[in-house]
């Protein structure tokens, strides 16, 4: 395989360069547009379009697209917002949670759409932006609900432990809440999407090479196998995409809930 | 606080996801401090000590915040 890979027309394994396609517009400026950015715009338009169409003439008994949209909206409201934040606060933060969930899902979804083939959350921009949004919101909500002092105290000084232990515990709580949280939110989504994309490229790239380029009948069955694996991982990726949207949204709700209440 | 009474046990499971940052922060922070001490002094004792203390403290925080009720 190594020999094959080294040939010019041979197999090219996926690399991190996948995520840095050439610029298409405004090259060299902060507004540089590449393929992934265009996919983000496209998926955003698709998402907005979907809800506009679904809610164009809403009926009391929903049917078709409206039904689908309401199922999604209800899932976020019931299973995330009300479940974690309760009815009152759940309603308060529902617009934010709904936006995060559907934005992450839609931008993830482009990873399995033919010809797009790229989860547009697989570059750090979107995950980082959303993580910072979450970070800002839960801290703001906490400070507003408790006041700055009590909020910091409830975060940094868990009640009921021997005083000397705060020397070890408080720095951990600080790093955990204010540094690791946004970091893990970003990396969890980013890394999952990068890994998913790499897996699909690996299997489909190998299938293409083994079936059409290797020129060996012996390798063709392996190519079919590789294509099958790619198909299975595409289904798996569909699951991961919605799961990551769910986890991101749920963690936002959990962080907000923690910030609103002094005691856990 | 009264708002929390209408929630069922599912939110307890959701909290588990939030613990990950605590479990990472402990070993990362005190392991990092240990590493810095080790590079200053020379040796490889403090990083191990830091990682262990960090891990124990992380679990302790999880216990204090969520384990006892």
UniProtKB/TrEMBL annotation, chain A:
PANTHER family assigned: ATP SYNTHASE SUBUNIT A
Pfam family, one: ATP-synt_A
TM helices/strands, residue ranges: 36-54, 93-116, 122-143, 189-211, 218-236
The keyword Glycoprotein belongs to this UniProt entry's keyword annotation: no
Name of the protein in its database record: ATP synthase subunit a
Domain of life (superkingdom): Bacteria
Role summary: Key component of the proton channel; it plays a direct role in the translocation of protons across the membrane.
Similarity comment text for this entry: Belongs to the ATPase A chain family.
Record keywords: ATP synthesis, Cell membrane, CF(0), Hydrogen ion transport, Ion transport, Membrane, Transmembrane, Transmembrane helix, Transport
Keyword match Manganese: no
Compartments where found: Cell membrane; Membrane
Annotated membrane topology: Multi-pass membrane protein
InterPro entries: ATP_synth_F0_asu, ATP_synth_F0_asu_bact/mt, F0_ATP_A_sf
Main location: membrane
UniProtKB/TrEMBL annotation, chain B:
UniProt keyword terms in alphabetical order: Membrane, Transmembrane, Transmembrane helix
Protein name: AtpZ/AtpI family protein
Classification of source organism: Bacteria, Bacillati, Actinomycetota, Actinomycetes, Pseudonocardiales
Organism (species): Allokutzneria multivorans
Domain of life: Bacteria
Transmembrane segments: 16-37, 43-63
């Amino acid at each position: 395989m190594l020999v094959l890979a080294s040939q010019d027309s041979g197999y090219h394994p996926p690399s991190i360069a996948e995520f840095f396609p050439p610029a298409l517009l405004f090259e060299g400026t902060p507004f540089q547009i590449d393929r992934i950015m265009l996919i983000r715009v496209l998926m955003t338009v698709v998402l907005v379009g979907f809800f506009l169409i679904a809610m164009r003439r809403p009926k009391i008994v929903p049917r078709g697209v409206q039904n689908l949209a309401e199922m999604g909206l209800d899932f976020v409201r019931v299973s995330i917002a009300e479940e974690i934040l309760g009815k009152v606060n759940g309603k308060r933060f529902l617009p934010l949670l709904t936006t995060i969930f559907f934005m992450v899902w839609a931008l993830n979804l482009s990873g399995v759409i033919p010809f797009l083939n790229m989860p547009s959350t697989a570059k750090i921009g979107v995950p980082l932006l959303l993580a910072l949004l979450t970070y800002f919101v839960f801290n703001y909500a906490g400070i507003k609900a408790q006041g700055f002092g009590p909020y910091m105290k409830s975060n940094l000084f868990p009640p009921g432990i021997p005083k000397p232990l705060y020397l070890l515990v408080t720095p951990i709580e600080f790093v955990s809440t204010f540094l690791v949280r946004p970091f893990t939110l970003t990396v969890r989504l980013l890394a999952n999407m990068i890994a998913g994309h790499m897996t699909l490229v690996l299997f489909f790239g190998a299938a293409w090479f083994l079936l059409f380029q290797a020129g060996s009948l012996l390798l063709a069955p392996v190519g079919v196998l590789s294509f099958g694996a790619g198909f299975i991982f595409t289904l798996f990726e569909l699951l991961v995409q919605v799961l990551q949207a769910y986890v991101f949204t749920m963690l936002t709700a959990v962080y907000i809930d923690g910030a609103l209440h002094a005691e856990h | 606080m009264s708002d929390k009474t209408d929630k069922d046990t599912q939110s307890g499971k959701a909290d588990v996801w939030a613990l990950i940052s605590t479990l990472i922060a402990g070993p990362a922070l005190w392991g990092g401090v240990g590493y810095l001490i080790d590079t200053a002094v020379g040796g490889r004792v403090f990083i191990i000590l830091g990682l262990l203390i960090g891990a124990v403290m992380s679990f302790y925080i999880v216990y204090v915040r969520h384990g006892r009720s």
